[in-house]
Amino acid sequence: MKKLVVVSIALILVLHTYAQKKFSGGLFVTPGISWLKPVNTKEAKNTGVGLSYKIGAEMNINLVDNFAFCMALQYASYGGKFSMDSVTKIKTTEEEIINVQNVEVKSKLGYLELPLSFKGKTKVDHMTYFIKAGGHVGFRVSPPKANLIVTKGATPKEYTDVLIPDEISFLNLGYHIGGGIEYDLTGDTRIYVECLYNGGFWPVSTMERIKPSGSATIKPNLSLSDVGLKIGILF
Predict the structure, then answer these.
(1) Helix (H) and strand (E) counts for the chain?
(2) Among 40, 120, 158, 206, which residue's beta carbon has the most beta carbons within 10 A?
(3) What is the pTM of this model?
(4) What is the pLDDT of residue 18?
């Protein structure tokens, strides 16, 4: 009986130590800047960046000594500006704006995102240096807001903080690459700083541009991109 108790305690301690080395998790915040990038600059133009931020929790699974799989759950807020020389329709929660020219959009978008990535790392004394690459999927969780300036005829009209839920995609897909450092504090607690670039390959704007011929329309395929400084703590 005593041997069974000793073996059980030893097994629990081994599994606990293994779990501590195998898994780590923590919290982070990522301030940055973001923009809407058109696939074809003839259809739309990026006219400025906006502020972005992300806040969430992450978990690292150590596969081998210098390699880990990372997953996170985060809320991401993006801003950005773009313009189009014509738009067939912009539907706000208050009205539909039909067949306008010289449209300028300053947007604010919010997504709940799940980033997945692989991390390569090396440790020197109390510092761990790492690089990371992966992809992410996001789902829109708040109605997108925008400031609009539209021209119909010769008169521009401005709309402030209007909701445009039908003009922004519910889904956002992208990739990310980055790198940074971790610093050991005490025990398994570490702080880290990471520079992270996110690119999109899913069009988030569904606005349509009128072709010069006037007989057809085309979507400009604007995707989200951002760069940020991720600051967090791991346990």
Answers:
(1) 1, 11
(2) 206
(3) 0.86
(4) 47
